Structures are given as C-alpha cells and as structure tokens.
Amino acid sequence: MEEDKIKERLLKENEEFRKAYEEHQKHEKALRIIGKKPYLTEEDQIKEKNIKKQKLALKDKMYYLIDQYKKTHK
C-alpha cells in the first residue's frame, strides 16, 4: 500500500497518529510565523530550535506508526 494511502487511513482510524499529525501541522505553522520575522531575537531563535526538535520527533513518531501499520497489514 502506498504511504499516502496509509497516512490517510491512519488519520481516520488511529488517534495517536492523528494527534501527532495535528501537532506537527501546528508546529509547521508556528515556524512559518517565526520565519516571516525580519529579525529573530535570541528568544525567537531558541523557540525556533525547540519547535524544530519537537516537529522532528513527531515526524519520527508518525513514520514509526506507518511502519507498524505496514508490518501488520501485509
């Protein structure tokens, strides 16, 4: 099964995946807002770095769940 189709199915059927996806999107939006600033304060830079770390952890979690789905739905 294609990865995009698995994502769609997990968004509908798996609450853990859906929450991770929604949180990832929230972080993506926050990064876009920070990125629009002409100058980043030190606080902004720290915030941006932390958001990126959290976003990456969520992405890892989503790919783990996709992998688990693939293993159980061969």
Descriptive report:
With 74 residues, the protein is mainly α. It has one domain (3-72). Helix content is 85%, strand content 0%. It starts with a helix and ends with a helix.
Task: Spell out the blueprint of helices and strands.
Blueprint: H1 3-13, H2 15-35, H3 42-72
Helix pairs in contact: 1-2, 1-3, 2-3
Q: Uncertain spans, ≥5 residues at pLDDT below 50?
A: none
Distance between the termini: 9 Å
- Following the backbone from N to C, one meets helices and strands in this order, namely HHH
Give the structural class. Answer: mainly alpha
Quick check: average pLDDT?
95
**Percent in helix:** over 70%
Rg (CA only): 15 Å
Describe the main β-sheet briefly: none
User: How would you sum up the global shape?
Assistant: elongated
Supply the number of structural domains. 1
Q: Per DSSP, what share of the residues sits in E-state strands of 2 or more residues?
A: under 5%
How many DSSP E strands?
0
Number of helices: 3
